[in-house]
Amino acid sequence: MSSARAKSPDDATLLARVRAAARQEQFLEVVSAEEARARFAAQLDLKPLLAESVSLGDALTRVLAHDVVAPVDAPAFDRSNVDGFAVRAADTVGANDASPKVLRLNPEVIACGHPPDFVVAPGTATAIATGGTIPRGADAVVMIEHTELLEGAPPQIDLRRTAAAGQFISYAGSDIARGETLLRRGARIGSREIGMLAACGLGRVDVVRRPRVAVLSTGDELVPPGAPLKPAGVYDSNGAIVAAAVAEAGGEPVAFGAFPDDEAVLEKAVREALVACDMVVLSGGTSKGAGDLSHTIISKLGTPGIVVHGVALKPGKPLCLGVVDGKPIIVLPGFPTSAIFTFHAFVAPVIRAFAGLPPAAAETVTARVPVRIASELGRKEFVLVSLVEGADGPIAFPTGKGSGSVTSFSQADGFLEIDALASALDADSEVPVTLIGGAAHAPDVVIMGSHDVALDVVVGALSERGFSARVLAVGSLGGVAAANRGECDIAPVHLIDPKTGKYNVHLATPGIALVPGWRRMQGILFRPGDVRFESRTAVEALRDALADPSALMVNRNAGAGTRVLMDKLLDGQKPPGYANQPKSHNAVAAAIAQHRADWGLAIEPVARLYGLGFLPVAPEHYDFLVVQSRRGRPAVEAFLAALRADETRGRIKALGMEPADENVT
Ligand SMILES: Nc1nc2c(c(=O)[nH]1)N[C@H]1C(S)=C(S)[C@@H](COP(=O)(O)OP(=O)(O)OC[C@H]3O[C@@H](n4cnc5c(N)ncnc54)[C@H](O)[C@@H]3O)O[C@H]1N2
Ligand code: MOO
Question: Where do the MoaB/Mog domain residues begin and end (predicted)?
Answer without folding.
Answer: 214-353
